[in-house]
Design brief:
Oligomer: single chain
Largest sheet: none
Order of helices and strands: HHHHHHHHHHHHHHHHHHHHHHHHHHHH
CATH architecture of the largest domain: Alpha Horseshoe
Number of helices: 28
Number of domains: 4
C-alpha cells in the first residue's frame, strides 16, 4: 500500500562486488553517450537489475570523471536500482552527504526516501517515518508538489500500520483536499485515498465516516468505469454491514463480489461471510469459508492477523466434533502464526481483539492430548504424543513468561497514560456538530465538563435519560455530542470516566486498595463486580485485582528504594 515506497525496492540480484562502478567492463560507446540519453535508457528498465546495470555503471563512471555534484548524486540514485538493501543505505548516505545543503526538486529528498524504503522493508516503521518526514521537508523546501503528495501518502500508510489511524486520517484528508487543485493534483489514484480513509475509520470504529468515504469511493470508481476498484469498494460495503450488525445484508454482498476481487482481497470476503454466518448461528456455512481462507493464506504466504481468529474458530469446531487431532493441528498453526506476528508484525496484531489467552490454550491442548492418549493403542503413538506435550509445554512456558513481561510493561504504561489522560480532559471542544445549533451545543459541553470534574459519573443511578434531563436537553442531543466529542457511546463514556477515576484514586488511597472488587466497583458506580472487572479490563487490558497487586508491589519498591 505504500505507493511511493514500494517501487524503489528491487530484488538484490547482484552481490556487493557486482555493484562497484567497474569502468573496465563498460564499453567506450556507453561512456560517450550523454547523461540525458543514459537517463532515458535507464528510466523504462530500472526495475530490471540485469539489463539496467551497464547503463547505471556508465552513468556513475562519467559522473565521477566530471565531478559535478548534482550529476554524481543522480548516479548514486541510479546505483540503488542494482544494489542490495545494505548498499542502498550506503548510496543514500552518499546522496545526503553531497546534497544535504541543496534546495533541489529531487535532492536531498531521494536520499531520505531510499533510507525510508530500506527501513520499511525491515519492519522498522518508526525509523522509516522519521526518514519520510525528512524527505517531505526537503520536498517542501524545493516546492516539489508531486513528491510532497507521495511522502504524505507514504506517511499516512505507515501511520495506519503502526496503529495511529487518527494521524493517518488527517494526512489522507489533506491529500484528498489536494485533488481540488486541478493544476497540481496528487499523482496517485483518488480512489485509493478514499479507500484508505474508509479503512482507517473502520479500524477505529467510526462507522458513519467509514460509510461516507466508502460511498465516495463507489461513486468515483463508477464515474471512471473502474470495475476493479468498484468491486473492491462494494466488497467492503459487505464488511461494513458486518460491523453494523447487518449480517443478512453483508452475506449477499460478500458472495456477489467474491469472484470480482483479487485473490488476497477474497480472503476478506470469506472471513466476513463466515463471521456473519456464525453471528446468525449458521456454523455449517461458516466452516468451509474458514478452511478456504486457511488454504489461500498457506499457499500464498499472506500475513493476515485475523488468521488467529480463524485458527481458534476451526480448533473449537473440531474440538466440538471430537476430532482432537485436527484441533491440535489448528492450535499449532495458531501458535506458529502468533509467533510470526509477534516477531515481525506486532503493529498489525495490536488491534486484534479475538484469540486465545495462553492459559486457555494450555488447558485446551492438554485436554485434546489427553483424549488422543486415551485412543492410543501403541507405544509409538504414545511416545509421539509425549514429545508433543513437552514441546507444547515449552511453548506455553515461553508464552507465559512473555505474558508476564507484557503485563508489567502494560502496567507501567497505564500509570503514565492515565496521568496524561486526566490532564487532557480540561478543555471544552469548539468544533460544531451537524444538526445541533451552536447556542445549544456549547452549554451542554460546558455542563459535561462540570459533570466530569464534579465526578457525577460515580452515581449508580446515572443514565443517559437522567443526565439529559439534568442538563436540560434531550437524550438524542447528548448522545450525539458524546459520540462526536468522546468517540464512544454513553455507556463506554461513563465506564471510562469511572475507570480513569479509580486508577488515579487507587494510587493515593490505601483504603480503596483494601476493598474487595465488588466493594470497589460499587464505590465508583458499578452495580456488579463482573461489570466493573469487564470495564476495567476493556480499558486497561488487565483486571482490577491484578492492577492493585502490582500497584502495592510498586509502592513497596519505591519505599524500599528499589
Amino acid at each position: 500500500m505504500l505507493g511511493a515506497l514500494i517501487p524503489i525496492l528491487l530484488s538484490p540480484i547482484f552481490g556487493v562486488q557486482a555493484q562497484q562502478e567497474n569502468t573496465a567492463q563498460i564499453p567506450d560507446s556507453l561512456l560517450r553517450v550523454s547523461y540525458q540519453e543514459l537517463a532515458d535508457i535507464i528510466a523504462p528498465i530500472k526495475r530490471d537489475s540485469l539489463r539496467v546495470s551497464p547503463y547505471v555503471n556508465a552513468f556513475m563512471a562519467k559522473a565521477k570523471k566530471d565531478g559535478d555534484t548534482l550529476t554524481l548524486a543522480e548516479a548514486y540514485r541510479n546505483m540503488v536500482y542494482v544494489s542490495p538493501p545494505e548498499m542502498q543505505f550506503q548510496y543514500a548516505d552518499s546522496i545526503l552527504w553531497l546534497t544535504k545543503d541543496m534546495v533541489h526538486k529531487r535532492f536531498p529528498d531521494y536520499g531520505y526516501s531510499v533510507k525510508a524504503t530500506v527501513l520499511y522493508k525491515k519492519d522498522q516503521y518508526e525509523e522509516a517515518l522519521e526518514q519520510l518526514l525528512n524527505a517531505y521537508e526537503s520536498a517542501l523546501q524545493s516546492g516539489n508538489l508531486r513528491r510532497q503528495h507521495n511522502h504524505q501518502y507514504d506517511m499516512a500508510a505507515l501511520r495506519g500500520i503502526v496503529g495511529e489511524s487518527d494521524k493517518a486520517i488527517a494526512l489522507y484528508k489533506e491529500i484528498y483536499e489536494g485533488f481540488r487543485d486541478t493544476l497540481n493534483p496528487p499523482s496517485f489514484e483518488k480512489t485509493q485515498v478514499l479507500f484508505n480513509l474508509f479503512n482507517n475509520y473502520l479500524r477505529i470504529g467510526v462507522l458513519d465516516s467509514a460509510q461516507y468515504y466508502l460511498n465516495e469511493g463507489l461513486q468515483e470508481s463508477l464515474s471512471r468505469n473502474d470495475t476493479i476498484r468498484h468491486a473492491k469498494f462494494w466488497s467492503n460495503q459487505g464488511v461494513l454491514q458486518y460491523y453494523k450488525g447487518a449480517y443478512q445484508k453483508a452475506i449477499p454482498i460478500l458472495t456477489e463480489t467474491l469472484e470480482k476481487v483479487a485473490v488476497q482481497s477474497s480472503v476478506q470476503n470469506y472471513y466476513y461471510r463466515a463471521k456473519s454466518n456464525l453471528a446468525l448461528g449458521n456454523q455449517e456455512a461458516a466452516i468451509p469459508d474458514l478452511k478456504i481462507m486457511d488454504s489461500i493464506v498457506d499457499a500464498n504466504g499472506y500475513v493476515i492477523p485475523e488468521m488467529l481468529d480463524v485458527y481458534k474458530l476451526l480448533s473449537e469446531h473440531y474440538e466440538n466434533r471430537g476430532d482432537y487431532r485436527a484441533q491440535l493441528d489448528y492450535m499449532d498453526r495458531y501458535v506458529s502464526f502468533d509467533s510470526v506476528l509477534d516477531n515481525r508484525y506486532k503493529y498489525l496484531k495490536a488491534n486484534l481483539s479475538s484469540g486465545y489467552d495462553m492459559p486457555e490454550l494450555e488447558r485446551k491442548k492438554e485436554h485434546a492430548l489427553a483424549q488422543l492418549r486415551n485412543r492410543t493403542v501403541t507405544y509409538q503413538r504414545y511416545l509421539y504424543l509425549s514429545t508433543g506435550i513437552a514441546t507444547l509445554l515449552l511453548l506455553l512456558a515461553i508464552h507465559y513468561f512473555r505474558k508476564r513481561r507484557l503485563a508489567q510493561k502494560r502496567f507501567q504504561e497505564l500509570l503514565a497514560r492515565t496521568q496524561r489522560k486526566s490532564a487532557s480532559q480540561k478543555s471544552v471542544p469548539t468544533d460544531g456538530i451537524h444538526g445541533i445549533a451552536e447556542a445549544v451545543l456549547l452549554p451542554i459541553r460546558e455542563k459535561l465538563l462540570r459533570f466530569e470534574n464534579g465526578n457525577g459519573f460515580l452515581s449508580q443511578k446515572i443514565s443517559l435519560a437522567s443526565l439529559s434531563k439534568k442538563m436540560g436537553t434531550n437524550s438524542n442531543y447528548l448522545s450525539k455530542i458524546i459520540n462526536h466529542d468522546k468517540g464512544k457511546n454513553f455507556s463506554n463514556y461513563i465506564n471510562d470516566l469511572r475507570i480513569d477515576h479509580v486508577i488515579e484514586a487507587l494510587k493515593t488511597d490505601a483504603r480503596l486498595r483494601k476493598l474487595t472488587v465488588q466493594a470497589l466497583g460499587e464505590e465508583i458506580g458499578f452495580n456488579r463486580s463482573e461489570s466493573f472487572s469487564k470495564a476495567f479490563y476493556k480499558k486497561t487490558k488487565m483486571y482490577p485485582s491484578d492492577f492493585i497487586k502490582r500497584l502495592e508491589r510498586h509502592r513497596k519498591e519505591i519505599l524500599l528504594g528499589k
